[in-house]
Amino acid sequence: MTREGEPSSRERTTDHDADGRPVTESDDTAIYCPECGMPAWIEWSTFLGSTGGDVRHVKVRCFQRHWFFMPASYLDVREPGESEGA
Q1: 35-49 per-position pLDDT tens digit
Q2: 3-class SS of residue 72
């Protein structure tokens, strides 16, 4: 439930990665650990308020058991077949 005048979750702006691509959680998008580069997954996400508006944060975990709580815009997101640094 949102307060009157606040955007609903469907109206919020999509976050973007460092290259300006939209961050999504679809099955065909690969997410990688910021520390080791292994495949990772989003365990949960939430929006935290800031002076510039709500910012989506995610908890990410990889197969090496590294985990991070960070803004979604910092995710290493790649499309299928895309290599690192492409």
Answers
A1: 999 999 999 899 999
A2: helix
